[in-house]
Amino acid sequence: MTRGGALPAVLAVDSGGSGLRAVLAVRGEPFGAPLASKEPVRTGPRGIDAGHLLEQLLPMARRLMAAAGVDGLGAVAVGAAGLATLGAELRAELPSALKRELGVRRLALAADAVTAYAGALGHQPGAVIAAGTGMIAIGTDLTSWRRADGWGHLLGDCGGGAWIGRAGLEAALRAFDGRRGGSTALLERAEGMFGPVSDLPGKLYPRTDRPAVLASFAPEVAACAGRDPVAADILRAAARHMAESAAAVCPADGEAQVAVTGGLFKMGDALLAPLGEELAEQLPHARRVPAAGDPVDGALRIAVDLANDELALPRDQRMLYVVTEKTD
Amino acid sequence: MTRGGALPAVLAVDSGGSGLRAVLAVRGEPFGAPLASKEPVRTGPRGIDAGHLLEQLLPMARRLMAAAGVDGLGAVAVGAAGLATLGAELRAELPSALKRELGVRRLALAADAVTAYAGALGHQPGAVIAAGTGMIAIGTDLTSWRRADGWGHLLGDCGGGAWIGRAGLEAALRAFDGRRGGSTALLERAEGMFGPVSDLPGKLYPRTDRPAVLASFAPEVAACAGRDPVAADILRAAARHMAESAAAVCPADGEAQVAVTGGLFKMGDALLAPLGEELAEQLPHARRVPAAGDPVDGALRIAVDLANDELALPRDQRMLYVVTEKTD
């Protein structure tokens, strides 16, 4: 499979808001520590900047290959945030560039939701809720992909970190104003975190990372949920929204599984308990399972399966774009 | 009252997101057409830029005074968006500058919510809901001001134009995804207005006028409300939020009146009918009255009352800041 024919190594890459991570696997097992850049790949007028991604990726790949003593890659899988809508340049330029620079003949470009799915459920049919600052649900019957939400903090991402934090801050300001639906517990938390709330608009609106600022308040909502009914209602509504998205993408029949993945679920039972109830109500046929791994594990799984001609997940230009070239 | 002693003229100014408007009144009646600039007054690191406001205002004031044949002003009232939080430089510089340049000895600096109130209810106690892209409620018992919401499109402005439009677009995208709570009628409207909704995030998020883009969809929600229950529910929720804000600021006893003002109410009964019901439920003691006038009328009312020593509205540094100097 590899040019040297010695070791069936693959490379898995995750490109997201916090930078690029790359992992090499030999015989299906990660080899050594992953490498990470701290700089997110730029998005330009033509979408995700292929040149900027390669600038970061190629030196990492060469270092990982040298450390493992491999001289070829059976496959590369790149998971990238924004691929579905901003991936045209990656699709156009990565296959030839990776072939030229690293001899890669099998390449998968996957939306970050797809690597999240593959990491959580492998190639089982079902639905995965991926939630951090944002929120998206992705599902497949192994014939095609479906996605729901993931529209960003103004149009959706309902139930994600920014959504929960925003709702919590609104409840804090309702208490400040004396409006219905306010929470003095959340007002105290907001003042503790941001200072006097009358200054909050001036602190939030000029920032370019507004969704992250909003999401930073989500753990405070979770911390209040045990004793504050307003905070508990926010998390219940978040859980309902997430389950609605999962229900929209989950196969209706068969052996559907459902899993959750992403940093938002670190808040634990305050969110997971109502989410379990909402999933049981809205997706009674789907079996709830723990996520097997994270998006890097998912990219690795895709790369290994692609190298072994065993990729069972549906191919699709926007979600999982695969370029293969027959080896001699 | 005026330096010439001939005509008790006053000047009213409204500074907002679409620029500056100035009206001269003689004997309490507007004289000639108002003058308007198209450029909003800049906000700098020290808040609303007093120099930029004066650059626009002084030539307008001189033109209006020359046209009316007056050589002095009994009072000036300036209503300014953002005064409460961004008005420090205006409070520091406008009194001396207007005295030096125009001989002004009585000046009122009012938050735009206060001119909206004065325009709608004059000096009656009560509450006013002012809604356009944003939403704020302001109320007074004639002793002090109370305000509720007006926190901007991410933290509140619940029920305003951006809030309604955002909720409508979320419902459109729910229909697109096949999620619960979707509206195919709103999806059609969204596609008619913005094109394929899959491109909507790329069109919305890079803009700097995101609240205005969201608010531009509010009339489409109103247009669907007669036959689409999701759209009707959005307007009902908007009405409930607005009434909640009004209830938080309206005096609980006495002869409280409640009025609505602002461009959002051009959408008519689709919003006004549920708002009437919510006000009746949440503020049963307040008498609903039509707004007597708009914020420019309110600034004019404040200027005339100030010139005549009859200003009955409560003074307050952030809401209605008044500087008077005894005339000889």
Q: What report would you give on this structure?
A:
The structure is a homodimer of 328-residue chains. The first copy, chain A, has 328 residues and is an alpha/beta fold. Chain A has two domains: 9-121 and 294-324, Nucleotidyltransferase, domain 5; 126-288, 2-Layer Sandwich (Nucleotidyltransferase, domain 5). Helices cover 43% and strands 20% of the residues of chain A. Chain A has twelve helices and 14 strands. Chain A has helices spanning 50-68, 83-86, 88-102, 112-121, 161-177, 184-194, 200-204, 210-215, 218-224, 229-249, 269-282, 295-307; strands at 9-16, 19-26, 29-30, 35-36, 43-44, 47-48, 75-80, 106-111, 126-131, 135-140, 145-149, 257-261, 287-288, 320-324. In chain A, the strands form three sheets. In chain A, strands 1, 2, 3, 4, 7, 8 and 14 form a seven-stranded mixed sheet that branches. Chain A has a five-stranded mixed sheet with strand order 11-10-9-12-13, sandwiched between helices. Chain A has a two-stranded antiparallel sheet with strand order 5-6. In chain A, helix 11 links the parallel strand 12 (257-261) and strand 13. In chain A, helix 5 crosses helix 6. Chain A is globular, with a radius of gyration of 21 Å.
List the helices and strands and how they pair.
The structure is a homodimer of 328-residue chains.
Chain A: E1 9-16, E2 19-26, E3 29-30, E4 35-36, E5 43-44, E6 47-48, H1 50-68, E7 75-80, H2 83-86, H3 88-102, E8 106-111, H4 112-121, E9 126-131, E10 135-140, E11 145-149, H5 161-177, H6 184-194, H7 200-204, H8 210-215, H9 218-224, H10 229-249, E12 257-261, H11 269-282, E13 287-288, H12 295-307, E14 320-324
Parallel strand pairs in A: 1-7, 7-8, 9-12, 12-13
Antiparallel strand pairs in A: 1-2, 2-3, 2-4, 5-6, 8-14, 9-10, 10-11
Helix pairs in contact in A: 1-3, 4-12, 5-6, 5-9, 5-10, 10-11
